[in-house]
Amino acid sequence: MKETPRFFAFPLGFLRKRKLACVRLAGGITVAAAIFRLRRIAQFAKDNSYPNCYAGSPKAEFSDQSAIRQLFICFMSSAESLERLEVALTPQERFEEYLQSRGQRQTKPRKFLVETIFAQHAHFDADELIEKLPRKGEPDYVSSATVYRSLREFVDAGLLNSFQLDGRTVYELDYGYPQHDHLYCTRCRKLIEFRSESLVETRDAAAAEHGFRVTGHRLIVQGVCRECAGSRRKKRKQDLV
């Protein structure tokens, strides 16, 4: 039986110093979350005594070879090329500062929610978050009412952004991330983040023309993503045969 590869013991402290722990990989997962997932893969193989099973092996039930490749690419990247902004406080510290300004104290459920939400860069609604949390009776259980209330507080504190999409309130990380916009696939409901300097220049020019002071904007472009468009073209070719 092979031992857990040294790669998975890679110190997260080193990654945080290089601002790599929160970098988003393909699919929106962060480096820290990917390493945690890969450690679980290796542990799964070790616990089940698979002689040739390790993270990345075809025998690993939860293998994710693309994540491994993305991690190595990430380690070789410079900090200047990262999208995540440098911030003085951690999300927890930022939220505690917000609570103190309102005469409130941090609670264990709120702290757990901040940790859970910032462990992975993703778009989600309240129900999707609740689905991922521990069930009633399990450790770190958080009631639905606390989740809804806390999400509103996180938005007010500047940790999260929220916007309406298809009749639901969608949340995304705001603290530590730059202004960006979205492409929304109306078929698979995927949200793709993008930044455009020319779009910002057009916005600022229009605002200046009307004597308008810009405090922010939100743009969601609706359409069909590459994968869904390709799938439809493939079906059409088959229909013609």
Walk me through what this model shows:
The protein is mainly alpha-helical and 241 residues long. It folds into 3 domains: 6-81, no CATH class; 91-173, Winged helix-like DNA-binding domain superfamily/Winged helix DNA-binding domain (Arc Repressor Mutant, subunit A), CATH 1.10.10.10; 181-240, 2-Layer Sandwich (Dna Ligase, domain 1). The protein has 9 helices and 5 strands. It has helices spanning 12-17, 31-47, 65-76, 91-101, 108-118, 126-132, 144-156, 197-209, 226-240, and strands at residues 160-165, 168-173, 181-185, 191-194, 220-223. Strands 4-3-5 form a 3-stranded mixed beta sheet, with no helix packed on it. It has a two-stranded antiparallel ribbon with strand order 1-2. Strand 1 and strand 2 (168-173) form a beta hairpin. Helix 2 crosses helix 3 (65-76) and helix 5 (108-118) packs across helix 7. The longest helix has 17 residues, at 31-47.
